[in-house]
Amino acid sequence: MAGGRVAHPTLKGPSVVKEIAIGIALGLCAATVWKMHHWNEQRKTRTFYDLLEKGEISVVAEEQ
């Protein structure tokens, strides 16, 4: 009886270049989302102070 050999796939380690590329891509995506959030908050603040300066809004509560 001949002992049959089972062909097992050879396990390869992670590809360093691929891991770096994926890390850079994920980092750029996260940075883009964060920067867009920052720009949106900046725009809201700038709009608020512009309206405050024009007198269209006030931070003082109106008396009833």
Give the low-pLDDT segments. Answer: none
Q: H/E element string?
A: H
Mean pLDDT: 88
Number of alpha- plus pi-helical segments: 1
Beta content comes to under 5%
How many beta-strand elements?
Answer: 0
Structural class: mainly alpha
Helix content: 55-70%
Largest sheet: none
Please state the CA-atom Rg, rounded to the nearest Å.
Answer: 29 Å
Please give the alpha-carbon distance between the first and last residues: 101 Å
Q: What overall form do the CA principal axes indicate?
A: rod-shaped
Subcellular location: Mitochondrion inner membrane
Main location: mitochondrion
Protein name: Cytochrome c oxidase subunit 5C
Family: Belongs to the cytochrome c oxidase subunit 5C family.
